[in-house]
Amino acid sequence: MEATIKLEQSHTSGVYPKREVAIVRGLGARVWDEEGREYIDCVGGHGVAIVGHCNPAVVRAICEQAQRLITCPEVFYNDVRARYMECLIQVAPEGFQRVYLCNSGAESVEAALKFARLSTGRPGIIAAMRGFHGRTMGALSATWEPKYREPFMPLVPGFSHVPYNNIEAMEQALDENTAAVLLEVVQGEGGVNPADGDYLLSVRDLCDRVGALLIIDEVQTGFGRTGKLFAVEHYNLRADLLCLAKGIAGGVPMGATLIGERVQNLESGLHGSTFGGNALASAAALAALDFLLAHDLPGEAARKGAWAMERLRAINARIIREVRGMGLMIGIDLRKRVTPYLKALMDEGVLALPAGSTVLRLLPPLVITDEELSIVCDAIERVLTA
Ligand SMILES: *Cc1c(COP(=O)(O)O)cnc(C)c1O
After folding, report:
1. Does pTM top 0.70 for this prediction?
2. Are 231 and 104 in a shared domain?
3. Which of 130, 186, 219 most suits a substitution to test ligand 1, by most atoms within 8 Å of the C-beta?
4. Are 206 and 347 in a shared domain?
5. What's the pLDDT at 79?
6. For residue 251, how far is its CA from the centre of ligand 1 (angstroms)?
7. In terms of residue numbers, what domain contains 204?
């Protein structure tokens, strides 16, 4: 393990805060380090490993597709991409008939921002304080966290931020220059903050009133994470553009932007991506979606998440300010900085991640077993009451 860490340290860009462990293998909700030590993985590749690490159905699809065709740009038609688009649209919330495929969450947000400006002919984008939408220049302009933004000024003009869950502030900000409002249903990076359903539905009405589009970023909440296939389904919220990535393809890099009926003027040549919709990613995504539906992983996330949150709320520790979340997207807000507790949990064989400086966040694979989840909660209790 030392050798791997040393080798990587001497060449890595330096932009990542790294943990002193080399992960080399995974299966389901477990991963192993180079010395063979086992961990229950509630980082899940930052919420990517929804169907579990090395899900056998995804592995099989990747192997088969890799022997047939790996790359095929979208200027050609492709059998597996066509089938994936059909399946995704079939399960998508009502009103989506088209999809733009890309390679990451930030790219899915970039596409939504560009499509919104194109469609409305307006420049303005309103996002929320504590929102996170990715790190490319456009997506970063919508991301709120000053320490991510400030080193890269000037960002894209036309973006503004309003307090989340505050409908008056949104009403004041929206006007005839607004192309779109961009929101998460549950803010992930920003601290696991669920939106009020009434707030989201009122934002929808306000958008309609001024002719702005509503972009919902489900990069983290999508594909069952919150207990529904898409988090907008909790509220029957109608979005005009829906951004997806993370767990979409069982761990293979992929993103998608679902495009609603009101989005116009998408003409050929206006946007694109070399790898977008490539055959290998499409095959993995098709297998991941099949598995997700066949095993009712959204239902599993709802059941397991409710159980885990009840268990965590019963922990008697002054350090816990609040336990909040939706499905298997769980945040434990602490009265202290979270980093030492993540380290202590790792020593207990549990990997978890932060959200902001004080929130301990869990994004386990939705296939995590009840027993594994129980071990995780026990470990958290030990660490927070020590
Ligand atoms: C992770 C995330 C992104 C960015 O995705 P990348 O694949 O890292 O570019 C965007 N929006 C949300 C809500 C995310 O959680």
Report:
1. yes
2. yes
3. 219
4. no
5. 98
6. 14
7. 57-294
